[in-house]
Amino acid sequence: MRWILAFLVVLCAARAESDGFARVSQSLSPHVHLVARPVATNAPYEGNSIVIEQTDGLVVVDAGGAPPAGEAIVRQIKAFSAKPVTFLIYTHYHGDHNLGAGAFLKAWPHLTIVSTAATRRAMTGKPMAYIKTYGQDYAGEIEYAKKQAADPALPHEVRQGWQQLVDVGASIVKGYGALTAYPATLTFDDRIEIPDAQMPVEVRFLGKANTDGDAVVWLPAERVLCSGDIVVSPIPYAAASYPGEWIGVLQKLKEFDFAVLVPGHGEPQSDRAYLDKLIAALTTIRAQVTPLARQGLSPEAIVQKIDTEALKATFTGNDPWLRTLFSSFFLTSIVKNATAEALGQPIVQGTS
Ligand SMILES: [Zn+2]
After folding, report:
1. Ligand 1 mean position to 289 CA, how many Å?
2. pTM score, two decimals?
């Protein structure tokens, strides 16, 4: 009997994950739970959801990035609490944080969705238009991943990384096939509070950073700070970010007396080391990019010219797959954005 069990355990461990929207839960403090992808660096790269227990209901930060993600999160929530979700807060407009909201509205039709006015503007305008063709676009991405996974010229770790995307590919294409955005029904510019005797929730806009409307959620009673994608670990996301203002917002995050910092993606943190790492990365990128941009070099030329080896090593530990992700999620976009910033050009949401 024992060997059969051992065999089954090995079989389950060896079988690749095929549902890209699966979620796991963990408790962060007495009234705060994290519902997240089992491995943050595995595709699809979906944001963390944080569940806050107030006296008569739950407040949730971010809803997952597709209908099946929302359903998985709702199932996890119902497994640890019978209270209804009364408020759903979006940290920003990127779909991986809000396209699961339909499942929340189905389960708790009376909930209020909260975001900054800028996030609502993006969700009702051009930046969110990509969702119409997202499933189809991702099918193309999976075909590309298949070729990369089979390319013998690539390092083993890189092929494995592409293979993981292939393994969950069918579930992603299906999940992103019919997407609906549910913009906030209650917006704010600077701050909004959801009061409660035991777990008051403060939602704040600290400045432009990862997007033009990032909200952070502060839970003073248990000293938990939810940063959205202002902080993403282990590989930051740059997209259409604002490098200079982003540094200022990271410095403001450092001033919160948090016991736990929950990033937009990745593991909860208990100190400021990663915030310092991000500030240092953005500072060195800006310092290198600014003079080259003013000499008239293109972002593509600048990214080849600047020295990013030390940065890649500190963020990736030189893992070949993480280096690939670092280039595509962070480096390309941040150099483009720092170039625009150096030239006084606008950074346009919905681009990366
Ligand atoms: Zn995200």
Report:
1. 25
2. 0.94
